[in-house]
Amino acid sequence: MLFESRSTQLDQFLTISSPDKMSYIARRGLSTLIPPKVASPNAIGAAQDAARMERVVNFYAGLPRGPAAPVKASGLIGRYQARYFSGKNASGAPLVHAIAGILILGYSMEYYFHLRHHKNHPH
């Protein structure tokens, strides 16, 4: 019922007003009622759409089906991440490795800048 009254109002509007006298708002409102594919004359010919659709179907037919294979980790950081961070292998070992690395780096810097001096010159 609401659709019928709206349709008759639209018909009356189209017969009374010409496109030259239509305001921007009225044209914009009218353009949203008519889908662009229906309004275009090119939509009548289905041969172009069928060829385009065939290319899309052939493209998707060539794609592999099913879940993607898991990516194998490569590189030093990738293998370390796969071993200690990913999935069921997650552990606290990287934290221990970081602490050990900081201690080794700190001691080597301390030795280079200060402790090697004590080897030959005690205080």
From TrEMBL:
Transmembrane regions: 95-113
Official protein name in the record: Uncharacterized protein
Keyword presence, Transmembrane helix: yes
Key words, A-Z: Membrane, Transmembrane, Transmembrane helix
GO molecular function: proton-transporting ATP synthase activity, rotational mechanism
Domain of life: Eukaryota
